[in-house]
């Protein structure tokens, strides 16, 4: 698949690049995408939820009524979860929600996500660019030139670019990452994927294994 290369003003440079069919042209695997997105969202959870159980509640330890003869259920502690003010039964405890996926499956999921976006013509390739200083206005001008506006966009750069990253940080609908940071959720969550020329080679290298 050939894609025209644009500059940051949105004009065609007259050059084209070939998108690898092994990365941008495969038949998407929906289950791999599901698992990779599920892992990504699970890793965002802090897992710090906690409620007090009966052993952690402050209260009397005496047996509140005799064992037999009351005609009601036996009860040994006011801190039981069946009483108001008692501990919570089977409440949440701090834990990690993360789980493991093998590298081949994650690679397949990311190629599937890129292929979906490429098939929907949501990929834009631009020549490498930089800013002299971090300024949100510069990045907004790039968004306008590429006709992105307020749409969700993901910019994939070939290397660390502090000025471009800092210029985009105030914009909630735009995100800037390096080619090595591509993930399935980020690719599918964006309306447009803007890829710089230098990042294409790294994407192909990382995902064509």
Automatic annotation (TrEMBL):
Source organism superkingdom: Bacteria
Name of the protein in question: Large ribosomal subunit protein uL4
Phylogenetic lineage: Bacteria, Pseudomonadati, Bacteroidota, Flavobacteriia, Flavobacteriales
Record text on subunit structure and interactions: Part of the 50S ribosomal subunit.
InterPro entries membership: Ribosomal_uL4, Ribosomal_uL4-like, Ribosomal_uL4_dom_sf
This protein's GO CC annotations: ribonucleoprotein complex; ribosome
Residue segments, region Disordered: 45-77
Annotated GO biological process: translation
Family assignment from sequence similarity: Belongs to the universal ribosomal protein uL4 family.
Classification via SUPFAM superfamilies: Ribosomal protein L4
Gene3D superfamilies for the chain: 3.40.1370.10
Pfam families in alphabetical order: Ribosomal_L4
Function per UniProt: One of the primary rRNA binding proteins, this protein initially binds near the 5'-end of the 23S rRNA. It is important during the early stages of 50S assembly. It makes multiple contacts with different domains of the 23S rRNA in the assembled 50S subunit and ribosome.
Molecular functions (GO terms): rRNA binding; structural constituent of ribosome
UniProt entry keywords in alphabetical sequence: Ribonucleoprotein, Ribosomal protein, RNA-binding, rRNA-binding
């Amino acid at each position: 698949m050939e894609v025209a290369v644009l500059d940051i003003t949105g004009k065609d440079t007259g050059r084209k690049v070939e998108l690898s069919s092994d990365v941008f042209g495969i038949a998407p695997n929906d289950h791999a995408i599901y698992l990779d997105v599920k892992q990504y969202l699970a890793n965002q959870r802090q897992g710090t939820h906690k409620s007090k159980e009966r052993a952690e509640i402050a209260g009397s330890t005496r047996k509140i009524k005799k064992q037999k003869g009351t005609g009601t259920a036996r009860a040994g502690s006011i801190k039981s979860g069946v009483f108001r003010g008692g501990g919570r039964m089977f409440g949440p405890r701090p834990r990690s929600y993360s789980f493991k996926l093998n590298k081949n499956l994650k690679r397949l999921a990311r190629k599937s996500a890129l292929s979906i976006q490429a098939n929907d013509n949501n990929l834009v390739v631009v020549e490498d660019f930089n800013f002299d200083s971090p300024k949100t206005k510069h990045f907004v001008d790039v968004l306008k030139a590429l006709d992105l506006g307020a749409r969700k966009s993901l910019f994939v750069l070939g290397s660390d670019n502090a000025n471009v990253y800092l210029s985009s940080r105030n914009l909630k609908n735009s995100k800037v990452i390096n080619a090595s940071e591509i993930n399935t959720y980020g690719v599918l969550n964006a309306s447009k994927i803007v890829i710089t020329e230098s990042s294409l080679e790294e994407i192909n290298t990382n995902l064509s294994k």
